[in-house]
């Protein structure tokens, strides 16, 4: 199994096809499997490999958190599409399994023994202990943080509003789980420009209603605020 050389177009094509119906390399959340494959790429996939590019941009957003993602890293060759097993070999394995099952049937003791019953109880106890250890270990893994990228339109009262001061007021809002990004002024007509500003928020900590209340609180500069775009990341 594997993707091959991920620095070649052929390898990236295999990765793109593999991700056509998948969000991640393994499972349903980002994991160390995604980190291993991501780090094997020398550059982002080209735009024609849109499944791979979509996955690449998503995993890149977890750059600061990649060490805390769940799972254990394996060699790159352990990830990717499985090779098709040879039919003859598969048939041989099936025949061997059938023969082994017949031998097991011949060895069945219909009456059993107390010793075998004790061994079964011991195996059950060990299995339960291992399950408990697994659940305890699983509960200690850090939970993934749900984030959203939001584009805000902040409108002034008129063309005489000091837009530099308006932006300064907006960026002065400091919340746990809020990171301000790039911004620009966009003409809306009659010499008036609105502030268009990007931010990333942690969904459990910051909401758009909260942002609107805080931003419109600068009533000397801000007339209104709208959400221009909202994307989960």
From TrEMBL:
<dbReference type="Pfam" id="PF00736">
    <property type="entry name" value="EF1_GNE"/>
</dbReference>
<keyword id="KW-0251">Elongation factor</keyword>
<protein>
    <recommendedName>
        <fullName>Elongation factor 1-beta</fullName>
    </recommendedName>
</protein>
<dbReference type="InterPro" id="IPR014038">
    <property type="entry name" value="EF1B_bsu/dsu_GNE"/>
</dbReference>
<dbReference type="GO" id="GO:0005085">
    <property type="term" value="F:guanyl-nucleotide exchange factor activity"/>
</dbReference>
<feature type="compositionally biased region" description="Acidic residues">
    <location>
        <begin position="101"/>
        <end position="121"/>
    </location>
</feature>
<dbReference type="InterPro" id="IPR001326">
    <property type="entry name" value="Transl_elong_EF1B_B/D_CS"/>
</dbReference>
<dbReference type="GO" id="GO:0005829">
    <property type="term" value="C:cytosol"/>
</dbReference>
<feature type="domain" description="Translation elongation factor EF1B beta/delta subunit guanine nucleotide exchange">
    <location>
        <begin position="147"/>
        <end position="233"/>
    </location>
</feature>
<dbReference type="InterPro" id="IPR018940">
    <property type="entry name" value="EF-1_beta_acid_region_euk"/>
</dbReference>
<comment type="function">
    <text>Catalytic subunit of the guanine nucleotide exchange factor (GEF) (eEF1B subcomplex) of the eukaryotic elongation factor 1 complex (eEF1). Stimulates the exchange of GDP for GTP on elongation factor 1A (eEF1A), probably by displacing GDP from the nucleotide binding pocket in eEF1A.</text>
</comment>
<dbReference type="GO" id="GO:0003746">
    <property type="term" value="F:translation elongation factor activity"/>
</dbReference>
<keyword id="KW-0648">Protein biosynthesis</keyword>
<comment type="similarity">
    <text>Belongs to the EF-1-beta/EF-1-delta family.</text>
</comment>
<dbReference type="InterPro" id="IPR049720">
    <property type="entry name" value="EF1B_bsu/dsu"/>
</dbReference>
<dbReference type="InterPro" id="IPR036282">
    <property type="entry name" value="Glutathione-S-Trfase_C_sf"/>
</dbReference>
<dbReference type="InterPro" id="IPR036219">
    <property type="entry name" value="eEF-1beta-like_sf"/>
</dbReference>
<dbReference type="Pfam" id="PF10587">
    <property type="entry name" value="EF-1_beta_acid"/>
</dbReference>
<dbReference type="InterPro" id="IPR014717">
    <property type="entry name" value="Transl_elong_EF1B/ribsomal_bS6"/>
</dbReference>
<feature type="region of interest" description="Disordered">
    <location>
        <begin position="97"/>
        <end position="125"/>
    </location>
</feature>
<dbReference type="GO" id="GO:0005853">
    <property type="term" value="C:eukaryotic translation elongation factor 1 complex"/>
</dbReference>
<comment type="subunit">
    <text>EF-1 is composed of 4 subunits: alpha, beta (alpha subunit of the eEF1B subcomplex), delta (beta subunit of the eEF1B subcomplex), and gamma (gamma subunit of the eEF1B subcomplex). Interacts with elongation factor EEF1A1.</text>
</comment>
<feature type="domain" description="Elongation factor 1 beta central acidic region eukaryote">
    <location>
        <begin position="110"/>
        <end position="138"/>
    </location>
</feature>
